[in-house]
Amino acid sequence: MAYFPYATLSDYLGISDSRCIEQTKVASKLKQASRHIDSLTFGRINRYGFDNLTTFQKDIIREVTCRLADFEYENEDLIQSVLSSYSLNGVSMSIGNTWNVYTQNGVAISKDLYALLCQTGLCTGLAGV
Fold first, then answer.
1. What superkingdom heads the lineage (predicted)?
2. DSSP string, 67-78
3. What is the pTM of this model?
4. DSSP state string for 41-60
5. What is the spatial distance between Cα 97 and Cα 9, in angstroms, rounded to a whole number?
């Protein structure tokens, strides 16, 4: 069974402010972001069916998919690092839940994007359509 991302190249070009992803890589990055959104929403989008969601929910999911693809592309090295923190000459850095990044089920997402995704009602234990 084929897996279709929640956003298309056309969506990406219309939504993304940075358009930092090369066009040849956009489809795979949107697919990866869609799978991560499935993790963040506990598979509810697949269970309910994307077409059965409200227009409001679909619009948010498309936007978050495009913006998450950009976030993951721009921060790929940091996200894929096996280190959770490091320190060098008195300067330290932590990876994980920080003031601007939220991690859940192994997925890192900016907190503003996660807050936007939560507006769909699909991220909590009491989600409904």
1. Bacteria
2. HHHHHHHHTHHH
3. 0.83
4. TTTHHHHH-GGGS-HHHHHH
5. 30
- Residue 42 identity: F
Helices (H), the chain: 9-15, 23-40, 44-48, 55-74, 76-79, 111-118
For residue range 22-80, list pLDDT tens digits in order.
999 999 999 999 999 999 999 999 999 999 999 999 999 999 999 999 999 998 887 77
Give the Cα separation of 106 and 97 in Å (integer): 11
Q: With H, G, I as helix, E, B as strand and everything else as coil, classify residue 103.
A: strand
Residue 128 has pLDDT above 60, yes or no: no
Indicate the angle between helix axes 111-118 and 23-40, nearest 10 degrees: 60
CA-angle at 93, arms to 98 and 99, nearest 5°: 15
